[in-house]
Amino acid sequence: MSITAADVNKLRQMTGAGMMDCKKALTEANGDFEAAVDILRKAGQKVAAKRADNETNEGVVLIAMNADHSNGKLIALACETEPVSKVDAFNDLAKSILDAAVKSHAPSAHDLLAEPLADGRSVEGHIIDLTGKIGEKITLAAYENISAEKVVSYIHSNNKIGVLVAFENVQGFDVAEVGKDIAMQITAMKPVALDKDGVDAETIEREIEIGKDQARQEGKPEAMLEKIAVGKLEKFYKESTLLNQQFVKDSSITIRQYVESAQNGLTIASFKRIALV
Predict the structure, then answer these.
(1) What is the pLDDT of residues 211-264, one digit of tens each?
(2) Sequence-separated (6 or more) residues with CB below 8 Å from residue 136
(3) From CA 30, how far away is CA 210, in angstroms rounded?
């Protein structure tokens, strides 16, 4: 059958796919619009599969806070190249995914991918479709959902780093300024955990082995390696756990001391940092 320009344009409005892709899909489907839509979606799945191993270091990080700042949601929608991160369709999808997270209160990225958007199709389905239209890998790189007495949010100026900091025992104190200081500290210093007891066993084991190897290369006796490595581990804790880090704005105090001095009893319950790098 003959495929008209109006048919192609109609399918393009329905799917957002390119004109040539729409014409090809309609031709293959003999003018059946539903079949053509399926063909375009399958094309998106093929592109996604082909580019599955590609790195996605570009994209956008978005945050949504509820009215009383007791909950924050943080997402990162990632792509391969910076130009794609500027495309309206990409940013519109990121905003729609964040809206879905707010509406559903999804507990994990896996759950969020299954949430429906306005047209009833899942977040994952929309990501696959946009992958096919744009031609490069797109992925929900991260999703965090934090609740606490007060949650403070921060988005870095490049929109590629986002932080949520959860505070407890606020006692009416305005944590906005302290929270921003802490969030900027997290952005810059990349702590791996809140405190020593939050560092996973695998990381500790790796740091001990690195410490032993360094001491061995320095010619230290084998019997001393374990003790030296444990000492180096303490240095790691000071540099890599938030509460034990030196405060960037005042290196004479730690983050723990800064928070305690700001408000008696105030505590950081948790934090999340998402970065596209």
Answers:
(1) 988 888 888 888 888 888 888 899 999 999 999 999 999 999 999 999 999 999
(2) 47, 51, 54, 79, 80, 81, 84
(3) 63
Axis crossing angle, helix 88-104 with helix 123-134, rounded to the nearest 10: 170
Element of type H or E holding 91: helix 88-104
Q: Are 226 and 135 in contact (CB under 8 A)?
A: no
Tell me which residue has tokens 């190897």. 213
- In the structure, what pLDDT confidence band is assigned to residue 194 with cuts at 50, 70 and 90? very high
Tell me the pLDDT tens digit for each residue of 253-275. 999 999 999 999 999 999 999 99
Q: What is the Cα–Cα distance from 81 to 85, expressed in whole angstroms?
A: 7
What separation in angstroms does the CA of 48 have from each of 16, 53, 95, 127, 143? 17, 9, 21, 9, 20
Helix ranges (DSSP H) in 115-272 = 123-134, 176-189, 201-217, 225-240, 255-262
Taking the CB of residue 85, how many other CB atoms lie within 10 A of it? 21
| Distance separating alpha carbons of residues 63 and 190, to the nearest angstrom | 19
CA–CA separation, 146 and 271 (whole Å): 8
Of the CA atoms within 13 Å of residue 77, those in its CB half-sphere come to 29
- Token duo for residue 71: 């909950």
Q: Tell which residue, 170, 175, 174, 194, has the closest CA to residue 266.
A: 170
Average pLDDT value for residue range 68-96: 96
